[in-house]
Amino acid sequence: MLHDTVHRVTQRVIANSREGRARYLELMERERERTPERVQVACSNLAHAFAGATDDQAAMKSFTGPNLAIVTSYNDMLSAHQPYGRYPDRMKIWARELGATAQVAGGTPAMCDGVTQGQDGMELSLFSRDAIAMATAVALSHQMYDGAALLGICDKIVPGLVMGALRFGHLPAILVPSGPMATGIPNKQKQAVRQLYAEGKASRAQLLESEMASYHSPGTCTFYGTANSNQMMMEMMGLHIPGAAFVPPGVSLRQELTRAAVHRLAAMRADGEDYRPMARVVDEKAIVNAAVGLLATGGSTNHAIHLPAMARAAGVAFDWNDLAELSEAVPLVARVYPNGAGDVNQFHAAGGMGYVVGTLLDEGLAHDDILTVWGGGFAEYAKEPKMVGDALAWHDPGESGDPEMLRPASAPFQHDGGMKLLTGNLGRACFKSSAVDPARWTVEAPCRVFSDQHDVALAFAAGELDRDVVVVVRFQGPRANGMPELHKLTPPLGVLQDRGYRVAMVTDGRMSGASGKVPAAIHVTPEALGGGPLARLRDGDMVRVCAQSGELSTSADLSARDAAPDPAPQWGVGRELFAMFARHADGAERGGSAMLAEAGL
């Protein structure tokens, strides 16, 4: 039996999506019928497409097997994506095992928010998602493919790949991860050094040594931020081979899961017996499942932006009301750093996604009838992959291997998903309560208003914030400067909190998916640019942030004030090249996308 709230929200999403979803599915059916059979394409076109495929030209010319597109976000600066360098050559071999062929159809950008955190380049981050989606569309626009393998893991990259591929939803598609790096130093130790550095009690050399002991090898960063939340959501939507999310790079199990992905992709082609187009896999129920997984595991707040954007690309309307209502019913079953002490490797060892899916299905909190890329139903994702000799197999993960990391939905860490919607005369915002001590869910204090995150750090260093304070960082929304993450502010605000002050942050920007500890009302919409409520706040105004009552308000009379002037657009680090994205971006609750807004989606 499906939980009443999950059923009610799903039915509302279906009703709200009826027109957009019908339009999308009609387009996908038209695209399937319109896409030319390769045997009918002009020989010159085909020769161009086949010319570089030296080992596969004969097979392509025979038209006997499917040709698979590989869309890769490989680069070797981004640790999570470094393993992808060798994937295409192996995937081509595995395609040949079934009489299929595979080609690298294109590459997408892949920037690292960990590298750009606190830097000007972070202002390109959110808009890189639109660029990735468009690059994916360019890759697939050659219409030479029967399916798409999407190679991506990190923050904007997976949502961008999904958004782009959904516009080719008549094709089957599988997301192919590469897995997390080995566990480094304990996360609490890393956080402690960051706070010591913020206080001037640790040197830069000590900070760098600590950071490199945490981020130290190829693979995804091991905290449960946006990248690893991406992997969880792809499992919850049925877009992975079951259990593929958190198997580390370089082991035989990882290789066999990728091989299985290639084989499944070939089997799902339109002229085969098991056609599973992406347009049918990503539907309203799959989006709700992704939201449920996000809440149940305490995932990244960034997906309050990415999930509505991915949904829109599939003709589905999903907003913060839906997310907040689900959060009231979905219990927190996982505590992974920053919500707990252990990382994703420990989460995986304790039962991982197989355990999470199983306990959610047991309590009727997820849809078991979604179409997945795997042969069976969604219940297959409640199993854990392993190698039995040289063969890939799945088994029941059993009970939680660590009750401090994973608990059943019938006896959770807390009875709600910890993603709160705040509303009031300052707008609408998200608050991730699962990472914050309940004693700090309510902060009411005079505000200090900033328009630049670097000024917050200067004020902290000068001792100007040593008091109960709500730090407001405005003009950080999509149209103002691309909505950068403000994770660099967590250590100084954490120091103030540890000194005994009541501290909160309010911003129309984002915090990292790994942020926690300090109460924060983020993604405030409408944003300050153009006269949103935050633009009318002044230093000393009383601001109330309350996750308990869902309130974001000020006692000041904002209607009697002029808004602070909009800041001038900044140039440098390529920001001027993204001006068109900023100019046309829509609000955070709709996903902060210029591409979707301009397409009328």
Key terms:
single chain; alpha/beta; eight-stranded mixed sheet; four-stranded parallel sheet; Glucose Oxidase, domain 1; 601 residues
Note poorly predicted spans.
Answer: none
Helix- and strand-based class?
alpha/beta
> For the residues shown, what is the average pLDDT?
95
Q: Biggest sheet: strands side by side, in what order?
A: 7-8-12-11-10-9-13-14
Count of the domains? 3
**What's the tally of helices?**
22
Alpha carbon gap, first and last residue: 33 Å
Strand content bin: 5-15%
Q: Per the principal axes of the C-alpha atoms, what is the gross shape?
A: globular
- How much is the radius of gyration in Å? 24 Å
Report the major sheet. 8 strands, mixed
Number-wise, the strands total 14
Fraction in helix: 25-40%
Q: Can you walk me through this structure?
A:
There is one protein chain. This protein has 601 residues and is an alpha/beta fold. It folds into three domains: 4-34 and 65-182 and 217-395, no CATH class; 185-215, no CATH class; 419-567, IlvD/EDD C-terminal domain-like (Glucose Oxidase, domain 1, 3-Layer(bba) Sandwich). Helix content is 37%, strand content 13%. It is built from 22 helices and 14 strands. The protein has an eight-stranded mixed sheet. A four-stranded parallel sheet has the order 2-1-3-4, with helices on both faces. Helix 1 (4-34) packs across helix 13 (284-296), helix 1 packs across helix 15 and helix 4 crosses helix 11. The model has no long low-confidence stretch (mean pLDDT 95).
